[in-house]
Design the sequence.
């Protein structure tokens, strides 16, 4: 069982507030802020492609200040509830934190991380739409799970760079998974920390649970978790970005049964995926 | 319950010969419960003449509910004379603003800065406190229950429903019916449509069966396309909302500052002809000085 000190929990969750967003989204939000006739959907698209902005927005909206009848899990929902201009101005305040540096002292490539997160998000939604499941799943929940599943890594890179660098090195030198290496060095892995953060911020428990269990050591409990697991492996297998962990995990028997195919079979059935990567690529590239 | 309009104009006070009949003051509505508790909806310039009448009944306890923080709903507050007189109690309710990270206290703090107003916040002699209202969480004020409902405007805007002794009134503050931000052939269109339908329905349910609905009807349908996204409704959208919610009577408010009384009556009459079956609810123009007893 992963252990993490209360002090570290406090430190990491406070740190996210000051965390800068990705260069491209900061640049585009600043462009939009000067354009009074900007397309609302443009704004949504920029925020929902940036894990830091999405995280910060949902964190505030799910806070005790609003207590909405239901928890907010998408940027679209936030626009419907609070209005476009409020969300736009919140995004502008996020840009005041500067931009995430492309080179951090952990040696973690944030552009490749973003590419992995974006492609995993799109693939999770795509797989859900194509293969579905027994439960009534909102494709938006799939997207957000994909976008945020590795959020813990970018937090580590930003705020615990020395330890995270050691974990990255350990993982590649001993060919063990990054999450196993993180547990050894930091005492907690990125999935635990990501889940801890969204749990602390009153995001839906199901999202925290999905992030916590996105590796094969746990069995996927529902459609979102199943789709995320497969999407994560496809993104790695097809080298769409790189989130510091190149190890493609095998589909466990229950997932083989659920999808009726192995990873290669699923990839074949999804058809042409080049657009997924191109679209993510165009956003992940810096200014 | 008594409801009195002290300001029905949108955006900016508009005194002059062309607005004499409907009035030029910006938004302020006084509500008196059967037990004479004082609830004020918004502090536009209409709150100043209201304040004059209160000087006869000091000390007062005023519960001021702010729909949102735009000027025309707050700029009368520093002139709400009871705030300067010891013995009065003022409670200002409003939303938490996610952009500034502050609640309704900011409404006074910003306006009463040294450069903009001669009296500082610290010099207000009444007891004044601030309470953050939250969506759908009712606040009890004596015999009245006030429920904030999130509506759609360029800043967080609460509509307030006031229920008291079986009677009810709903004031929208400023509200533009939600529209889909996607084109019908965009991928996100249907998902967004579901969200706005849900939200529209929850607003209708919150207004359901009120005796009086006071709604932002700033524009005509002809004017609306050029003002889309500015956060205001039309006469037609308010009539439709009142019909859907089964309100008994609708008062259209937030009159355009450039609209003369004659023009206001003309565009209102045109809107009514587009809704010939709207015998129920009744539809009226809100007029400064008018009092409704329910």
Sequence:
């Amino acid at each position: 069982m992963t252990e993490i000190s209360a002090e570290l929990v406090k430190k990491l969750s406070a740190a996210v507030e000051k965390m800068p967003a990705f260069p491209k989204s900061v640049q585009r939000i600043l462009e939009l802020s000067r354009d009074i006739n900007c397309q609302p959907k443009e704004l949504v698209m920029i925020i929902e492609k940036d894990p830091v902005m999405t995280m910060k927005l949902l964190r505030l909206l799910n806070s005790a200040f609003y207590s909405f009848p239901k928890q907010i899990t998408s940027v679209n929902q936030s626009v419907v509830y609070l209005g476009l201009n409020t969300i736009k101005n919140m995004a502008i305040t996020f840009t005041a934190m500067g931009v995430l540096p492309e080179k951090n002292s952990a040696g973690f490539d944030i552009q490749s991380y973003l590419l992995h997160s974006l492609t995993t998000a799109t693939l999770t939604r795509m797989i859900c739409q194509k293969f579905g499941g027994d439960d009534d799943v909102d494709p938006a929940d799939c997207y957000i799970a994909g976008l945020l599943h590795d959020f813990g890594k970018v937090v580590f890179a930003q705020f615990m760079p020395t330890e995270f660098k050691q974990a990255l090195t350990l993982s590649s030198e001993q060919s063990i998974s990054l999450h196993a290496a993180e547990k050894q060095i930091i005492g907690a892995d990125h999935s635990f920390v990501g889940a801890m953060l969204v749990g602390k911020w009153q995001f839906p428990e199901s999202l925290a649970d999905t992030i916590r269990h996105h590796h094969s050591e746990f069995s996927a409990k529902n459609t979102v978790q199943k789709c995320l697991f497969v999407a994560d492996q496809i993104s790695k297998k097809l080298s769409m970005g790189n989130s510091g962990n190149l190890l493609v995990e095998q589909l466990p028997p229950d997932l083989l049964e659920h999808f009726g195919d192995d990873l290669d079979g699923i990839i074949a059935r999804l058809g042409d995926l080049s657009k997924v990567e191109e679209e993510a690529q165009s956003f992940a590239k810096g200014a | 319950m008594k409801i009195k309009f002290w300001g029905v104009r949108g955006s900016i006070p508009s005194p002059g010969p062309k607005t004499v009949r409907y009035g030029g003051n910006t938004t302020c509505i006084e509500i008196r419960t059967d037990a004479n508790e004082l609830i004020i909806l918004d502090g536009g310039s209409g709150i100043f003449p209201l304040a004059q009448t209160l000087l006869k009944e000091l000390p007062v306890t005023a519960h001021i509910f702010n729909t949102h923080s735009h000027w025309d709903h707050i700029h009368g507050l520093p002139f709400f004379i009871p705030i300067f007189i010891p013995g009065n109690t003022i409670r200002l309710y409003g939303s938490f603003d996610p952009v500034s990270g502050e609640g309704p206290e900011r409404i006074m703090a910003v306006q009463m800065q040294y450069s903009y107003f001669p009296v500082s916040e610290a010099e207000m002699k009444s007891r004044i406190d601030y309470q953050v209202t939250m969506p759908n969480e009712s606040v009890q004020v004596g015999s009245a229950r006030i429920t904030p409902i999130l509506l759609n405007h360029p800043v967080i805007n609460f509509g307030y429903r006031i229920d008291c002794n079986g009677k009810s009134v709903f004031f929208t503050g400023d509200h533009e019916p939600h529209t889909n931000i996607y084109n019908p052939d965009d991928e996100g269109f249907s998902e967004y449509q579901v969200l706005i339908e849900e939200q529209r329905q929850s607003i209708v349910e919150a207004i359901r069966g009120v005796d009086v609905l006071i709604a932002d009807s700033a524009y005509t349908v002809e004017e609306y396309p050029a003002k889309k996204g500015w956060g205001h409704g039309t006469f037609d959208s308010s009539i439709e909302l009142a019909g859907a919610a089964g309100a008994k009577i609708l008062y259209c408010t937030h009159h355009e500052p450039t609209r003369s009384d004659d023009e206001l009556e003309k565009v209102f009459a045109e809107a009514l002809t587009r809704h010939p079956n709207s015998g129920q609810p009744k539809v009226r123009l809100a007029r400064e000085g008018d009092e409704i007893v329910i």
